[in-house]
Amino acid sequence: xxxxxxxxRVYVESFGCSQNQGEGAGIARELARxxxxxxxxxxxxxxxxxxxxxxxxxxxxxxxxxxxxLSARIPRVVVTGCLVPLRTQLMVGPGQERTTFVPIREQSxxxxxxxxxxxxxxxxxxxxxxxxxxxxxxxSSSALSRSTVVEEVIIAQGCTSGCTxxxxxxxxxxxxxxxxxxxxxxxxxxxxxxxREIRLTALDTAAWGLDLPGTDRLPDLVRAVGxxxxxxxxxxxxxxxxxxxxxxxxxxxxxxxxxxxxxLHLPLQSGSDRILDAMRRGYRSELFRREVExxxxxxxxxxxxxxxIVGFPGETEDDFLSTEALLEEVGPExxxxxxxxxxxxxxxxxxxxxxxxxxxxRSRDLAVLRxxxxxxxxxRWIGTRAVGRVLEHGPGGSAVARxxxxxxxxxxRRPPLGADLELRVDGARSTYLxxxxx
Length: 438
Fold this sequence. Notes:
There is one protein chain. The chain has helices at 18-33, 57-71, 110-115, 168-172, 180-192, 218-226, 241-244, 248-255, 273-279, 285-298, 317-330, 356-379; strands at 9-15, 37-38, 47-52, 76-81, 99-101, 140-142, 150-154, 156-157, 176-177, 197-201, 233-236, 263-265, 303-310, 334-339, 385-393, 399-402, 408-411, 420-428, 433-437. By secondary structure, the chain is α/β, with parallel strands linked by helices. It has three domains: 9-142, Rossmann fold; 150-379, pyruvate-formate lyase- activating enzyme (Alpha-Beta Horseshoe), CATH 3.80.30.20; 385-437, CATH 2.40.50.140. Strands 1, 2, 3, 4, 5 and 6 form a six-stranded mixed beta sheet that branches. It has a five-stranded mixed β-barrel with strand order 15-16-17-19-18. Helix 6 runs parallel beside helix 8 and helix 11 runs parallel beside helix 12 (356-379). The longest helix is centred in the C-terminal third of the chain and has 24 residues, at 356-379. The radius of gyration is 22 Å and the shape is globular. The N and C termini lie far apart (48 Å).
């Protein structure tokens, strides 16, 4: 029973980045701790909590449709995440009067809000019979569908950058780092719950600590987390090249010391310095190149993940070819490609755009290139043996293990979650390896 004496059945659904996923999971854990019941589906819930993503316009549209579907089925809905409060005006119509909007930095108030709502007199159920009808996008997760051995630990809100296209920085505001004692407390609690992988998450993890007194920076945080007792690995999330630059040597040293995956998520966004300037990314392509070279010298099996935006306003064919050339040169294991989408309130929204056919063609070309590059990189692992940690159970009796550099290995069987297995790599696709326990 919650503090109000009312047991509320809650369905929590999160979309988008690992920070959103971590926030949704944290809300769900606190509600369960207070005695509320986590529902497996909307049809079982008195309250639905929707953690939204607004990174591009198509995603925003899916969020609005998902809100419409949930509010048609659940008596009360709480909407939070990156669309609140910047785009809540889109959520109008039936269900609006039963929806509460909670900004990201006020998410800590959600459990008390639910404590005050009594399940004894719920609003009548509305909408279509049975469970929720519209399909759920693949980028979502519900509180009860997540891996029980993986947890996100949020280390900061906001960032220090001023990228002209970024909606997330508008939603999350300026940098607010979580001090080391609080981060390590959260990690200890996650490990006590059985976590075997901790994901340190922020918009720009390398900016962590810039706003805190003292000299601690990301390498110090990674080491402090590594000192927490327990058998777990640490995945450090996305970081900007200019934030990493002054920390590069000490950060690579921290990655080599044990608990952290030898994994670097370093967005490129464009191989053209002219476009990087228009984006206000704060670095040139040469810095990205130097950091990758340094990381690969220090960590021979580094897994490099990067992000690229195609079709940014003013991008010429030469700019696009510069991006392709730099990707060919550095050979990332993982490349995430996004077509530019103007977001309200950002400077880039007023710059105009490329003809859709041009942006689509470049997006297709880059998709072909990234699959070829990634597959070539991953095929080097065929015939090798390595230890992988089982972190997900997949469809058809499969499982996914992660190597020490975070490369995923798909298995045709389901060992226990959290198990460490010696694996033989038998094959490679463009986004994962195929392996067999030996």
